[in-house]
Amino acid sequence: MELIGLTGGIGSGKTTVSSMLSRRGMDVVDADAITRDLQRPGEPTLEAIVEEFGASMLLPTGELDRRALADIVFNDVERLERLNAIVHPAVGTEIERRLAALAETAGPVILDIPLLVESGRDDLELIVVVDLDPEIAVRRLVDHRGFAEVDARARIARQVERSERVARADIVVDNSGTLEDLTSQVDDLVRTITRSSNPHVRTPPTSSSTPSR
Predict the structure, then answer these.
(1) Cβ atoms of 149 and 114 closer than 8 Å
(2) What angle is formed at CA 112 by the lines to CA 5 and CA 133, rounded to 5 degrees?
(3) What is the CATH number of the domain that holds 66?
(4) What pLDDT does 196 receive?
(5) What tens digit of pLDDT does each residue of 22-52 get?
(6) Is position 88 within any domain?
(7) Angstrom distances, CA of residue 207 to CA of 186, 191, 197
(8) Number of domains in the chain
(9) Domain-located, residue 201
(10) How many CB atoms lie within 10 A of CB 52?
(11) Looking at the domain assignment, is residue 73 inside a domain?
């Protein structure tokens, strides 16, 4: 198994790139999707969240009210740390279980994880960063995902610095352009990953570039 890390800040388009890679036949272990799975009704992780933050965190359907929870934790560092202490270990365990199930896979496996840089993983053959100017990310979060601007800026501010994320990248996918531009870069990325006979050769696709910072 050749493990490829995929990351990017909130609003960068990382999820879009991850979906494109999956549609192109690549195995993807998606930390965000795992988090959602573990927070479904009846799951121990959701029960622990309710125990910590109260039943007001549930919608009438019994599902997690993600917006209500976010409104609390992203304005309170201590409560965010308590949430992370509940969620992160469970997500980490499930990630490792899924990677173990793919261990004999001949081709590449994409590990899609928002906190990749912060995780300190050292078992990745490549790190791919989906990059976007934070101001553009704020506009997209507000226009397309219904965020309040202050909330979008607060979430971006709590993440690792853009420059640090890009500095760790072997390949940067610049998502400041059109969907067609992004699609072209993803196609180049797939060719780069799949054509390499030596998993230790790191040759970024020519169309992906590090934007000026």
Answers:
(1) no
(2) 85
(3) 3.40.50.300
(4) 58
(5) 999 999 999 999 999 999 999 999 999 999 9
(6) yes
(7) 9, 12, 21
(8) 1
(9) no
(10) 13
(11) yes
